[in-house]
Write a sequence for this structure.
């Protein structure tokens, strides 16, 4: 009961925080003619972010309203969907969903499993998203800067149609639906006293995020030699063009899943098996969008379905698996893990082959000892620890 009383107090504090941060204008009646909505949160309001980043949504997602998986952890619509509909706006596209998205009337930065505070837990172990609220705010800042630049550089209306108008950021509605996963983590990992002690920090970080968002109201060398454009990143949803391919690589990725977080050692949550899942989902969705398109303009940034079997598939990964091994394993343990690393890479290539891929380019790993990150984590090494090549 003591924790329940604390949580009841949290809601009172949050209300006070919102009034304090937003000022007098938050107390008066505001007209509901918002041109856009920008949402931050967890699975309660995620409209496709976590499913675009990791596993695609399956049944019963979307069954009762969209009649197909719709990126929501729900059979129907979420509260954010009803808010958008009530304001006469379209449903929000997830920031992390780069296929068939439109950000003219806002964007959704929420991902299932997100927390207010960064938690040193893996998505694959406890389901905690790597996209905590502070990361979502960083994404929003980048989103605003890049879309404004793209909008101002665009020469035609067709280039602007899926981008927000720069002047709309100061008129938009900013919604937050987050915090339950911080509470769940507290129940799971802390005593009653420890949990009560972190509540002020949760509130403080939430207030900081609201304040930052409120300030808004004031593989290349290969492409070059093949005469192809530089690849758009799969996780980059702004001004992307997938006609000639897509890039699923992320800094810090590994072949094998590692039970480490990006905040601790820089290990990406998007291991090779997740990148393969993203590719399969990408192929399915772009094929559907291409076949449903009515005009050449709607197809111009989508890959042609027949090109998947003719494409070049490149793999450049593995050095982070070795780096993790050097940090955590003995020499014999790392040597014993090598067959599994190679087998998982082979499995990834095989899955692409099953999807129709026939041409593969697999890079070797880089010189591990020379990586600055290793010298950072292994400070003051004993004599003889490093060879003549570092």
């Amino acid at each position: 009961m003591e924790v329940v009383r604390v949580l009841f107090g949290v809601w009172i504090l949050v209300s006070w925080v919102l009034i304090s941060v937003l000022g007098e204008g938050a107390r008066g009646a505001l007209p509901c003619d918002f041109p856009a909505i920008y949402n931050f949160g967890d699975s309660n309001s995620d409209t496709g972010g976590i499913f675009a980043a990791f596993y695609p949504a399956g049944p019963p997602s979307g069954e009762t309203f969209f009649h197909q998986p719709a990126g929501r952890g729900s059979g129907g619509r979420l509260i954010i969907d009803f808010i958008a509909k009530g304001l006469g706006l379209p449903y929000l596209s997830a920031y992390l969903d780069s296929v068939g998205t439109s950000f003219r009337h806002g964007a959704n930065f929420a991902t299932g499993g997100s927390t207010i505070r960064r938690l040193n837990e893996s998505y694959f172990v406890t389901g905690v998203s790597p996209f905590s609220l502070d990361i979502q705010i960083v994404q929003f800042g980048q989103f605003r800067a890049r879309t404004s630049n793209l909008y101002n550089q665009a020469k035609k209306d067709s280039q602007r149609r899926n981008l927000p108008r720069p002047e709309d950021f100061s008129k938009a509605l900013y919604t937050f639906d987050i915090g339950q996963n911080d509470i769940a983590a507290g129940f799971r990992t802390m005593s009653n006293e420890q949990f009560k002690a972190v509540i002020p920090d949760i509130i403080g970080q939430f207030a900081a995020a609201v304040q930052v968002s409120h300030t808004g109201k004031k593989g290349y060398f290969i492409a070059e030699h093949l005469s192809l454009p530089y690849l758009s990143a799969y996780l980059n949803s702004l001004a992307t063009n997938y006609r000639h391919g897509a890039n699923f690589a992320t800094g810090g990725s590994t072949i094998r899943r590692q039970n480490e977080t990006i905040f601790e050692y820089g290990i990406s949550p998007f291991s090779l098996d997740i990148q393969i899942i993203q590719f399969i989902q990408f192929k399915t969705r772009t094929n559907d969008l291409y076949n449903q398109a009515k005009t050449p303009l709607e197809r111009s940034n989508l890959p042609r379905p027949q090109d998947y079997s003719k494409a070049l598939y490149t793999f450049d990964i593995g050095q982070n698996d070795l780096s993790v091994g050097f940090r955590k394993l003995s020499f014999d343990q790392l040597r014993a893990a090598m067959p599994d690393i190679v087998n998982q890479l082979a499995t990834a290539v095989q899955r692409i082959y099953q999807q129709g891929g026939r041409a593969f380019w697999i890079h070797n790993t880089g010189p591990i000892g020379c990586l600055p990150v290793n010298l950072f984590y292994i400070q003051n090494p004993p004599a003889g620890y490093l060879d003549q090549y570092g």
